[in-house]
């Protein structure tokens, strides 16, 4: 009997995770896999680029914290600029220690304590993430935002998206999943209830149309679908397999990992994430092959294609 399931769980989970930031371990300042509309961390050097959010009248939905290097903060000439920008220590500004030299040369002042709140007041004036030095036998220094409920001060500013954008992206990404050329094969393989699936597809298409997320020309121009409307990988332009959303990548013989969860298909940013831009948005997200995504990394599609062309030339293949 066919299962009364509208969308495979693996796909639903994958789409849900697109609304979260990338992973981060305890040794860094960032939160681990939280919503993209969480508190934003802005390096002081990038504040002029990032002080205004892309929506919500320029306000980040859960606020922001500016991280300033100690050598900058203790430079008297910078005080007037901080006042001009209304950046106040302990309110929306923290001194961020990243190196042993900073910790030694710019000691914390009397009365300072490590911050512990993402909303003002921040309950502190500084935060530290300093790695251990094996050569000198010095242990790592991690202060501020260290409790289980408060690990990490916030998210990378370029990963930010407001709640409405996150939801719109999820609708468009599901729309693209159902646009895979082999979707009927997946439906049969997973034993999905065809009637329920058709209802789900109709619902997503209606929502995509309402939100203007189904513009064929825009999707083609962005390298997200082909001229026939089938979902493609933005780098290699091959059709994306719906089955690939559920199948784990093939591992090299002798190097298998039993708990591998990486699948053949992953989220793909057409214009790469970069500071000063907010590229987690509709018509800039597609589904790509895992290995194509690894090749592109943060370089962007066109620079990657240019590099690949040079490689082929040097190998006398073009």
Name some characteristics of this structure.
single chain, 318 residues, alpha/beta, 6-stranded mixed beta sheet, two-stranded antiparallel ribbon, 11 helices, 30% helix, 11% strand
Summarize the structure.
By secondary structure, the chain is of the alpha/beta class. The chain has helices spanning 9-17, 47-50, 70-73, 79-84, 100-105, 163-177, 183-189, 194-210, 216-221, 290-296, 301-314, and strands at residues 40-43, 64-68, 93-97, 126-130, 141-143, 155-156, 265-269, 285-289.
How would you describe this structure to a colleague?
It is a single chain. The protein is α/β, with parallel strands linked by helices. 30% of the residues lie in helices and 11% in strands. The chain contains 11 helices and 8 strands. The chain has helices at residues 9-17, 47-50, 70-73, 79-84, 100-105, 163-177, 183-189, 194-210, 216-221, 290-296, 301-314, and strands at 40-43, 64-68, 93-97, 126-130, 141-143, 155-156, 265-269, 285-289. Strands 5-4-3-2-1-6 form a 6-stranded mixed beta sheet. The protein is elongated and about 65 Å long. It starts with 8 loop residues before the first helix and ends with a helix.
Oligomer: single chain
Run of helices and strands? HEHEHHEHEEEHHHHEEHH
Number of helical stretches of at least 4 residues:
11
pLDDT below 50 for ≥5 consecutive residues: which ranges? 251-260
Mean pLDDT: 93
Number of extended strands? 8
Q: Kindly state the percentage of residues in helix.
A: 25-40%
Q: Strand fraction band?
A: 5-15%
Distance separating the two termini: 53 Å
> Strand arrangement, largest sheet?
5-4-3-2-1-6
The chain-level structural class is alpha/beta
């Amino acid at each position: 009997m066919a299962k009364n399931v509208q969308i495979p769980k693996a796909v639903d989970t994958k789409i849900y995770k697109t609304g979260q930031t990338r992973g981060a371990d305890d040794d860094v300042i960032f939160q681990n896999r939280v919503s993209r509309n969480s508190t934003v961390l802005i390096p002081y050097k990038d504040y002029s680029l990032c002080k205004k959010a892309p929506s919500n009248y320029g306000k980040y939905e859960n606020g922001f914290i500016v991280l300033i290097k100690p050598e900058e903060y203790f430079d008297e000439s910078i005080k007037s600029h901080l006042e001009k920008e209304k950046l106040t220590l302990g309110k929306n500004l923290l001194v961020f220690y990243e190196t042993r030299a900073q910790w030694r040369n710019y000691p914390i002042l009397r009365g300072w304590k490590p911050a512990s709140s993402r909303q003002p007041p921040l309950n502190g004036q500084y935060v530290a993430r300093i790695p251990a030095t094996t050569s000198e036998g010095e242990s790592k220094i991690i202060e501020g935002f260290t409790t289980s409920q408060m690990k990490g001060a916030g998210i990378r500013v370029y990963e930010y998206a407001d709640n409405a954008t996150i939801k719109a992206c999820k609708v468009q990404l599901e729309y693209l999943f159902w646009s895979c050329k082999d979707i009927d094969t997946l439906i049969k393989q997973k034993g999905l209830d065809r009637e329920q699936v058709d209802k789900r597809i109709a619902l997503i298409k209606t929502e995509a149309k309402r939100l203007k997320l189904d513009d064929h020309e825009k999707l083609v121009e962005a390298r997200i679908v082909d001229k026939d409307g089938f979902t493609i990988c933005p780098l290699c332009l091959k059709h994306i397999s719906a089955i690939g959303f559920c199948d784990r990548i093939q591992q090299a013989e002798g190097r298998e990992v039993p708990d591998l969860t990486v699948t053949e298909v992953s989220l793909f940013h057409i214009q790469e994430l970069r500071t000063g831009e907010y590229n987690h948005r509709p018509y800039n997200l597609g589904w790509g092959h895992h290995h194509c995504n690894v090749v592109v990394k943060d370089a962007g599609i066109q620079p990657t294609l240019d590099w690949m062309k040079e490689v082929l030339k040097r190998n006398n293949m073009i």
